[in-house]
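Exercise 7 asks you to align residues with tokens for two separate proteins.
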Amino acid sequence: MPLSDDEARDFGGFADFPTVSSLSKGRKHRFVWLSGAVRPTNVTNALVKFDLETKASLTWHEPGALPGESCFVARPGAVDEDDGVILSSLIQADGASALLVLDARTMAEVCRVVIDGVRIPSGFHGTFLSE
């Protein structure tokens, strides 16, 4: 879908790893969660919720942090398309790895779990590690 200049600026002029609600897969949907950027940067450093109807977006960003791709998980019993959470791997500004949990409606941080002793590399998508 082509974006206007204003829409593209909402997530740094690029978007990658889009995902939709598991309730909407294979059907018409309103929301897309994706990786974006808060400039100046050449890497993904933000997670974005984009509304296909209103063209509005909500962005989660933390200076110095590098989130992975979004994974939508619906709340048990959810009816609304954005009723759930977004999970993402995260490299924090201090270099520690974490699991980030965001409210899928508001993109507000619900919690994060810091993973001691393990470093999850940036761009973990498609990477397989042996023990």
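Second protein for Exercise 7:
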Amino acid sequence: MTTSPGEGSEGGFHSGAALFTFDATRRIRSWNKAAEEITGIGADEMVGRYCWEALCAHDEAGGLVCHSGCSFHRLLQERWPVSPPTLVIRTSTGTRRVRVPMITVDDGSLFAALLLEPSEAPAQKEAAQVPALTPRQRTVLGMLADGKQARRIAAELQLSELTVRNHIRAILRELGCTSQLSAVAKARRLGLV
């Protein structure tokens, strides 16, 4: 479904802000006029494409965020709260920095995301902060940096996999990252691993 000026998006969503929806397969289902305006890319080009393929998003340090194994999508499907990341997305003329709040809709088969202009102040403040990780989080982060997956970390630390995933979510939140890969890259830049 494409949207045109004056129409709402799928599921009865109406927003003056740039809004798109995507389904459980990660395909974009609606792309409103404001999303067209902020990206310069029309609904006819975006609807039906995988969100990761359409947005090509990176974090501000250049780490790949949007990909077929997107951690945001997994968290949304599991109904975990997702902090709005600041991402660099593709546009018709290059790229653009946006904040992307996301929500799970209905029974978890539809998701909505906004593309908002970020405030410059939070990004500067974020860069100056040193993450406060617990000793256990530092251990888990180090194991992630060694390429270990949550299941293996859980086995080695004799923790449940759910506990390890909770530590990983806390690490991502504390580092302001959107994926494990970008968290490890940022941790290396900050000398945490």
